[in-house]
Design goal:
By secondary structure, this protein is an alpha/beta fold. The chain folds into 2 domains: 3-53 and 300-407, Aspartate Aminotransferase, domain 1 (Alpha-Beta Complex); 60-298, Type I PLP-dependent aspartate aminotransferase-like (Major domain) (Aspartate Aminotransferase, domain 2). Helix content is 45%, strand content 15%. The longest helix has 20 residues, at 300-319.
Length: 413
Amino acid sequence: MDLFEKLLQNRGPLGKLSSVAHGYYTFPKLEGEIGSRMIFRGKERIIWSLNNYLGLANHPEVRKADAEAAEQYGLAMPMGARMMSGNSDIHEKLEKQLSEFVGKQDTVLLNYGYQGMVSAIDALVDRRDVIVYDAESHACIIDGVRLHIGKRLVFGHNDIESFDKQMKRASDTVAESGGAILVITEGVFGMGGDQGILKEIVAMKQKYSFRLLVDDAHGFGTMGKTGAGTGEEQGVQDQIDIYFSTFAKSMASIGAFISSDEQVADYLRYNMRSQIFAKSLPMPLVIGNLKRLELLRSKPELKAKLWSNVMKLQKGLRDRGFDIGKTNSPVTPVYLNGNPNEAANMIMDIREYYGVFLSVVVYPVVPKGVMMLRLIPTAVHTDADIDATLNCFSEVSEKLKSGFYLKQKLVTV
């Protein structure tokens, strides 16, 4: 069979919907200044789909730092991979400040979070080692695990009994292979919003020998007293062996980092292929991220405002009888009963009639017959944004229960 013919016969679970979804449900275009209200298809909408947690995307100090750095250095500087010719004092300054903030000895900057996680897993383990990971881990973790040529074991999401069972299996395996165990989970799970059971997992170090890698993309900047992450929130930051996060969420930027003991960080610096063979993070991004980190650390009012909005939104949803699952983070899911066609019709109604833009998740991410609407509160949302959205939810849920989105063929998927 011809390769292209094979691809076109099986376009994948998302690709098969492209003819009706592209440009609206998938690859939508949001225009205007980044904020709680933007333009979608020519009309203003209340936006709940951006991970701009602290509102730094358009903070005046951030915009000034970005512009001045771009003016001074352009996007080419520094040229080459960091190991060869792309290192700078400014890159190392950001690494040092990140290390101090998250309480680790050393840090390695990464060009992208997804790419970095896949590469970190590849560098950390070999065929003798076993990976034990949470069933609801992010796709970057799943892809990294898939590349592992040794044994990999998955435990039920946030299920310590399942974790214990898999750790027994992993321990038996490495006793024979002479390898080690790497446990991977998340600080905050980006879909359901629940925190990983970090405290329970690190307690298992008294029973088993393993190292813990935590992806805290949604926890960095939003969780903990100082914003240092979910480990700080749960009082176990010092027991996380390898701490990973991205600049794409609370910092509203590009890039990522991984922090650990000095010798482990140095090992990663010399063995992560995605960084060794890739151009260094451009100087304007490094300088911009230094400014963002400064604001994250010096302006606690940003996180306070974020959490004020989180509480208002989540309390409002609960008071109106909505199921928002087990979230204990800013990520706010709303679970409703319905099929993909109802979900598509409802989202169109929400966007076009109510002026609210949010994301919807259906099977296979959630069980059949369930749809999940996902909202990301930020520090720049207003009470008016929250009130309008709560009223929207109350009305569309009644429409959903009445069968309106089955009768009204707004779109067919």
